[in-house]
Amino acid sequence: MSAWKQWFAGLFRRGDAGGTVAGRLAEFEAGGEPVITAAMLDDGVWRAGRLKAGRYRLVWWVPGEDGVLDFSRRDGVVESLGGVDGGNGWTIDPNMVVLHYRRGPEVVHLAVPPAELELVGRILPLPQQRG
Prior knowledge:
Helix content: 10-25%
Shape: globular
Strand order of the largest sheet: 4-3-2-1-7-6-5
Order of helices and strands: HHEEEEEEEH
Structural class: alpha+beta
Strand content: 35-45%
Oligomer: single chain
Protein backbone atom coordinates (compact mmCIF):
# COMPACT_ATOMS: atom_id res chain seq x y z
CA MET A 1 0.00 0.00 0.00
CA SER A 2 1.36 3.44 -0.90
CA ALA A 3 2.13 6.00 1.79
CA TRP A 4 -0.73 8.18 0.51
CA LYS A 5 -3.24 5.30 0.81
CA GLN A 6 -2.00 4.48 4.31
CA TRP A 7 -2.43 8.11 5.36
CA PHE A 8 -5.93 8.24 3.86
CA ALA A 9 -6.93 4.92 5.51
CA GLY A 10 -5.67 6.26 8.84
CA LEU A 11 -8.27 9.04 8.69
CA PHE A 12 -11.02 6.45 8.94
CA ARG A 13 -9.45 4.01 11.41
CA ARG A 14 -11.68 3.45 14.44
CA GLY A 15 -11.81 1.41 17.62
CA ASP A 16 -8.26 1.80 18.95
CA ALA A 17 -8.04 1.40 22.73
CA GLY A 18 -6.93 5.01 23.24
CA GLY A 19 -10.00 6.31 21.43
CA THR A 20 -12.72 4.62 23.47
CA VAL A 21 -14.27 6.33 26.47
CA ALA A 22 -13.05 3.50 28.73
CA GLY A 23 -9.55 3.78 27.28
CA ARG A 24 -9.48 7.54 27.75
CA LEU A 25 -10.72 7.24 31.35
CA ALA A 26 -8.07 4.60 32.05
CA GLU A 27 -5.43 6.95 30.61
CA PHE A 28 -6.76 9.74 32.84
CA GLU A 29 -6.76 7.52 35.95
CA ALA A 30 -3.18 6.41 35.18
CA GLY A 31 -2.05 10.03 35.22
CA GLY A 32 -2.10 10.61 31.47
CA GLU A 33 -3.52 13.81 30.06
CA PRO A 34 -5.98 13.05 27.25
CA VAL A 35 -6.58 15.74 24.64
CA ILE A 36 -10.18 16.48 23.61
CA THR A 37 -11.42 18.38 20.56
CA ALA A 38 -13.49 21.31 21.84
CA ALA A 39 -14.78 24.76 20.88
CA MET A 40 -15.18 27.99 22.80
CA LEU A 41 -17.49 30.92 22.12
CA ASP A 42 -15.36 34.05 21.60
CA ASP A 43 -17.13 37.35 20.76
CA GLY A 44 -20.11 35.50 19.26
CA VAL A 45 -17.99 33.13 17.14
CA TRP A 46 -17.18 29.51 17.95
CA ARG A 47 -13.43 28.82 17.80
CA ALA A 48 -12.21 25.26 17.39
CA GLY A 49 -9.50 24.23 19.80
CA ARG A 50 -8.27 21.51 22.12
CA LEU A 51 -8.78 20.65 25.79
CA LYS A 52 -6.07 18.89 27.73
CA ALA A 53 -7.53 16.99 30.66
CA GLY A 54 -5.19 17.12 33.65
CA ARG A 55 -5.84 15.78 37.15
CA TYR A 56 -7.38 18.97 38.52
CA ARG A 57 -7.94 21.23 35.52
CA LEU A 58 -8.76 21.45 31.85
CA VAL A 59 -6.56 23.61 29.64
CA TRP A 60 -8.03 25.01 26.40
CA TRP A 61 -5.92 26.30 23.52
CA VAL A 62 -5.96 26.78 19.76
CA PRO A 63 -3.10 24.90 18.09
CA GLY A 64 -0.59 27.30 16.57
CA GLU A 65 -1.68 30.27 18.70
CA ASP A 66 -0.33 31.64 21.95
CA GLY A 67 -2.45 31.64 25.07
CA VAL A 68 -4.39 29.09 27.06
CA LEU A 69 -7.44 29.18 29.31
CA ASP A 70 -7.64 27.06 32.47
CA PHE A 71 -10.83 25.54 33.85
CA SER A 72 -10.74 24.17 37.41
CA ARG A 73 -13.21 23.69 40.24
CA ARG A 74 -11.04 25.98 42.36
CA ASP A 75 -11.48 28.90 39.95
CA GLY A 76 -15.05 28.40 38.78
CA VAL A 77 -18.07 26.15 38.35
CA VAL A 78 -20.08 24.62 35.52
CA GLU A 79 -23.46 26.16 36.29
CA SER A 80 -25.42 24.61 33.42
CA LEU A 81 -25.28 22.49 30.29
CA GLY A 82 -27.12 23.18 27.06
CA GLY A 83 -27.78 25.98 24.59
CA VAL A 84 -26.31 29.44 24.61
CA ASP A 85 -28.40 32.41 25.82
CA GLY A 86 -31.74 30.68 25.38
CA GLY A 87 -31.18 29.65 21.79
CA ASN A 88 -30.51 33.07 20.28
CA GLY A 89 -29.19 31.63 17.03
CA TRP A 90 -25.57 30.94 17.95
CA THR A 91 -24.91 27.38 16.94
CA ILE A 92 -22.29 24.73 17.42
CA ASP A 93 -22.18 21.20 16.04
CA PRO A 94 -25.37 19.53 17.37
CA ASN A 95 -23.22 16.64 18.54
CA MET A 96 -21.46 18.90 21.07
CA VAL A 97 -22.65 19.79 24.58
CA VAL A 98 -22.17 23.40 25.71
CA LEU A 99 -20.87 23.90 29.27
CA HIS A 100 -21.59 27.27 30.90
CA TYR A 101 -18.55 27.79 33.14
CA ARG A 102 -18.80 30.70 35.58
CA ARG A 103 -15.63 32.33 36.86
CA GLY A 104 -16.73 35.28 39.00
CA PRO A 105 -18.94 37.54 36.87
CA GLU A 106 -17.68 36.00 33.61
CA VAL A 107 -19.37 33.03 31.88
CA VAL A 108 -17.38 31.03 29.33
CA HIS A 109 -19.23 28.81 26.84
CA LEU A 110 -17.22 25.66 26.10
CA ALA A 111 -18.48 22.91 23.76
CA VAL A 112 -17.27 19.31 24.14
CA PRO A 113 -18.33 15.99 22.59
CA PRO A 114 -20.98 14.20 24.71
CA ALA A 115 -18.74 11.12 24.89
CA GLU A 116 -16.22 13.19 26.85
CA LEU A 117 -18.67 14.44 29.52
CA GLU A 118 -17.76 11.67 31.95
CA LEU A 119 -14.08 12.59 31.68
CA VAL A 120 -14.82 16.33 32.02
CA GLY A 121 -17.10 15.57 35.00
CA ARG A 122 -14.20 13.97 36.89
CA ILE A 123 -12.42 17.34 36.81
CA LEU A 124 -15.35 19.78 36.91
CA PRO A 125 -18.53 18.68 38.68
CA LEU A 126 -21.38 18.86 36.16
CA PRO A 127 -24.97 19.81 36.99
CA GLN A 128 -27.69 17.30 36.26
CA GLN A 129 -28.85 17.40 32.66
CA ARG A 130 -32.51 18.11 32.30
CA GLY A 131 -34.14 15.80 29.81
